[in-house]
Amino acid sequence: MSSSESSPIRVRFGAFELDPSAGELRKSGVKIKLQGQPIEILALLLARPGTVVTRQELQRKLWPDNTFVDFENSLNAAVRRLRAALDDSPENPRFVETLARRGYRFVAAVHPAEPTQAKPVVQSLTGLPIANFSTSPITQRTSFALRPHPSFVGRATEWSELCGALAEAASGRGRLCLISGEPGIGKTRLCTELAAEAQARGVAVLIGRCAEQEAITYLPFVEILESLVASAASPELLRTIVGDEGPELALLLPRLRRVLTDLPPTLELSPLQARRNLFNAVVDFITRATGRRATLLILEDLHWADESTLSLLEHLVRRLTDLPALVLGTYRDAESDVTGALLKTVEESIRSRRNTSIRLQGLPREEVALLLKAVNGKDAPLSFVNEIYAETSGNPFFVEELIRYLEEENRLYDSDKNFRADLKIGELEVPHSVRLVVGRRLARLDAMTRKTLETAATIGRSFPFDLLEAAAAAAPDYLHDWLDEAEHAALVASSESEARFEFSHELIRQVVLSGLSTGRRQRLHLDIANAIECIYSDTLEDHYSELAHHFARSANREKAFEYARLAGKTALKRCAYEEAFAHMRAALELLGQQRSKRPRDELDIQLVLGEVLGAIKGRGALEAGDAYSRARDLCKVTSAPATKVFEALEGAARNLFEQGRRPFALNAAEEMLTIAERSGDPALRGRALLRVGYTLMDGEPAKARPYLERALSSEASLPRSLSAVTLTHVAICLQRLGYLDKALRAMRQAEQAFAYDRIEPWRLAMGHGNAAAFYAELGDGAASLGHADSCESVADRYGFAEIASGAHSARARALALIGRREEALSLLRACARNHTSKLSPVQRIRDLFALGDACVEAELVEDGLGVVKALESIAIVRGGKETRDSRLADWLKGRLLPSCNPPDLGTAENCLRRVIERFRLTGDRFMELRCAADLALVLRDTGRREEARSMLAEIYGWFTEGLDTRYLKDAKSLLDELGE
Fold it and tell me: Which is more confident, 598 or 67?
């Protein structure tokens, strides 16, 4: 054995470099996916360049006597994979020459590789090395040398812009870059080159790809998460990097729960809050798993992204200002490829200052010449360049495919191995599109190889070997041979583990699919679906979307329905609401095509649709109400179990309440309670009592109080955190009924739970919001401000948009109460500008009243009247009966009109008298007192002091507690003044 064999050193040949000790082959610094026998064969050949290495010698070294394999076929397959990696051919070898029946010889020049200076590294949580930026700075744009790329030509402007964006992101100023262009224009190649540059600079690189066929929500992010989870060396290390986000991450990676079996359940949140919580978990996990170092995230083929993936991308982009990350996305920009959701994402990113948009065009003529030179190192004649450019318009993929085709047809070179100066493409019957060129290449393959590729293309751009094997019903050895042929033809590429393959370009897969008849395609989808059921039977939940996709394109409508329904439920759990809606609509259509429609199946679908539409369009959306209404009808005709009826009623009650249809919501809530009482289930009883009490609370606090108190008693069972929020509702009811001391005790009990109990963020924010409103109505601005700040903090952190809106309004109200007039003015005007119609009518009225109350306290008459106008424009009269919320506009108007210039005391009096009567009828004694105090001022100012004193004294005399609270003290002072 030579010294070079005993002590292997890194060697260089052409654009390649081999490190035998590490078993790594690189091209222009980019690692090539090559392992096992092919890399060992290359190492043996490079150890003795120019010398024949016999087949017998290779057998002794790589396949010893005790190895039971078909040596001849195995060696041939390994050499084919090696040549594919080197882009070499047996007919015109540049590197590996075949000597018939003897062996192989390495024919290119071999040089020792220049030693590289090791960079200091630290370890991330995943155990991966991270460049030490104190010794390898990446913060300056000039730190990225624009290195030459032998087969990567042109794009100098785009390359410079991307390198600058990478440097800026690495310095802590995150960016988004979107690269668009037609198929084959070089989007992926540009990403590949930037990834190599990033890795050379110690930047973490994470890659995910959307796919047309693989109907998996959040697919590119799932791929990124899988790669990070796989990098953990042990379950203990995985637990460390997963952190508190484990339950949310397990929604996207169900196998995480199979590894970390003690993960707690996910938090109970409203749909929109659950999605925001999931998105935060994904971003935080990526940040932590990469050791918080500079990161390049590449998301390819966004034109196939589902809406949930785009929503997660938008969330990530909004957080880029705090992350040292460059997010690089690619998409086709043809009108037929850009969906409405993608267009929205692109438009929003363009408005961002942290965005770079790059649209790739075809290479200019001179760069096509450079691309041709990279083929064999020789300059092509101008006439040859002109022919190629005219045929391809500079599309790099088309150029490469056309050159490959001409070479296979022996029409590329003259007798001296130079490009043919007399090339006339128009005279050669050359295909005039890249699809036709690829089609001709496919036609040269063995028939079984073509059939294998048809199955693979139906699976998707990327396909696992075990699924292909099962779907094609082929022996592994034969299947490897057929894939080797396809790989040698540069149609597919294998992963490092050789357990997964992918098409070299999506256009290749599309050409394969275009040759399939409808019947053949249906059969392939059925074979693939059956194979998935067979080989993934233990983890079928992970594959519901794929099964729904393949069965829907087969003739098996029954299973297509079943898996669409299951996929919809899974998407709902993953907060992928748009995809859940699509799956459930598909399931509904498939159900309608079946001979025997099953109402119970439709009931399941309608319940999910109600929840999904509430998440997409708002809790009070009419479409969600229609789904729950249909579900209630189906419950009657199917004799549905009590739990299903309860679920349908609960959804309907919530939806009707948010629409402002309180009587109908109350009917549904009371039906819930009837079912809960019959069932004897304390959990259902607790939910039903709370729903009835909450529905009654705003309009009839006296009726609401016993239901809320029963929900907290031993006869019911509420989660601990929900009990804390329910206490705030009890406190508000007691306050409105005039029992102010009891109300304060209930609220302080709730506050203790907020401080010491572990409460889910959604309920914690809601509890603080209720407390802020409670103290504001008592006139305690300082306590209200403290809770408004806490509510705002939790809501902003977790993205609880509805609660955040209320928190901002509550804060403005509290600031006005404590006399911080300028701050209140600035905030309440900002709230008014940003007030969104996406909130339910109930939430909009509550927020607007808080703003109006702040205007009264801050003596901002014009602003306050503007709020009154907004309240009146909603014009809610729910179910023919006005509720407490609809009275608030009159009360605000009665308080504001006396301060107008000139004052309108007559209208103010009429408004206040109407409101007092309405509050008296509903037992809302506290609001009756406050309105009476406002009316007493109007009566005083119009010379009717005795009437004012008598009217106010009657209501004030009712109160026996809370006499030291602000508004009762104000009423007492006014009474004393009127009695003088």
Answer: 598
